Amino acid sequence: MKRNLKDFLRLVQCPLTIAAGLMPVPILLFTYLQPQLQKYAWIFPVSYFVLTALSFLLPGKLRLPFGLLSAVAIVLPWPFLLTGESLALCLAVAIIFDALLLWSIRMGGWNAEKELHSAWIGVCLVAQFLGLGVQLLDRQTAQHPLTPMAPWFYLSFFVTVILCMLAMNRKALNTITQERTAVVKAMHRKNVVLVFLLVGAAAVISLLPSAMGAINIVIGWIRQLLKVFERDYSEDIMTVPPMTETAEPEDLGTGFAPNVGKHTDILNIMFQVFFIVLVAVALPFLLYFLWKRLRGVAKKLWRSLRNFTSDSTAEYEDEITDTRDSVIADEEEIIKPKRRRRILSDRGLSNTEKIRHRYRQLQKKNPQWRKSSTARENLPEASAGIYERARYSPHPVTSEDADLFKTETKRM
């Protein structure tokens, strides 16, 4: 099946979600059952993802043989490298990911609306939260065996959260409408940006303690550098030869020494008080400003969601739902007496009724027209425009329009 790059990247997100979501499982198993295998834990989910993604590039008839060969390739190296309990544990984990690989190769035949089942999203999120919880408890121990695998925990967590949110976003939009209108595409782009902004904000907040530690290290380096310069400067002063005559400082009579004394302490206290007052005054204004901006953004987002829902629903009802049967039934009751008097003629009908009566005759003459099809699909463009104006628009229809519609559709 030929796919463009956008569809392929969307499809690849499904096995990537499973691989990232289940990353803590082999890490925890190897760490607490066979610690010497801990460094190999990432191989199984990464191999599963890479081989599954490669199978999507193959034709459908070749995916199953490729999947079987890939499953053998995941299991084959371990009997030559390990023995005993280590081999048994590796084979067990390899078989689990082999089963996932053989199940996942069928994703290559999914259409654009097919997404991972919600159960998979739940399993991946539960595995991630379980892994983070165990890692948090591991920090309280004396040995910290999970510390070397912390980067894999954080990377897989953020990847899982982002992909799960994107998948749920696509499923929600597919549920609302099957048509990729401009409104749906714009909303999808906004939701993707919102997902990355929320996850990025969470990542920045979580990394603030580490950033403060890095800033403290930089400040310590700067202090050490200043001390080195100060020591070199003092050594240079000591090496200057003494002058023959030393000028005595003038006695100011007040005993004032610059940068020394009570005036310095007073200035320091004034500076601290000024800083505290500035923070106490500016911080509420800053929080108020941020609150107003966030509330405005939230209102705009809510308004966009409501507009999007109404627009999508209107387009869905107008484009997809067939409401003509009930309308035609109602009209049949109204014009039935007239039909009895005019079996083969439309005389006495208004221009709008003539056009709609003519269209009903065309529907009977053309049984190949689907019930869900519209006049735009069945008629030429000019005739479809006349019918839509007579059917949906409140504007009056002239007799010339009715004659033109009858003439253009005479041979249909």
Overview of the structural elements:
The chain is an all-alpha fold and 412 residues long. Helix content is 73%, strand content 0%. α7 packs antiparallel against α8 (150-176). The chain starts with a helix and ends with a helix.
Largest sheet: none
Q: What would the average pLDDT be, to the nearest integer?
A: 76
Terminal Cα separation, in Å? 38 Å
Beta-strand segment tally: 0
Which spans of ≥5 residues are poorly predicted at pLDDT below 50?
Answer: 248-260, 311-322
Give a nutshell description of this structure.
With 412 residues, the chain is an all-alpha fold. The protein is 73% helix and 0% strand. The chain is flat and about 110 Å long.
Topology:
Blueprint: H1 5-21, H2 24-33, H3 43-55, H4 60-75, H5 78-81, H6 84-104, H7 118-138, H8 150-176, H9 182-238, H10 262-319, H11 324-341, H12 351-365, H13 375-378, H14 381-391, H15 399-408
Q: Which key phrases capture this entry?
A:
mainly alpha; 73% helix; flat
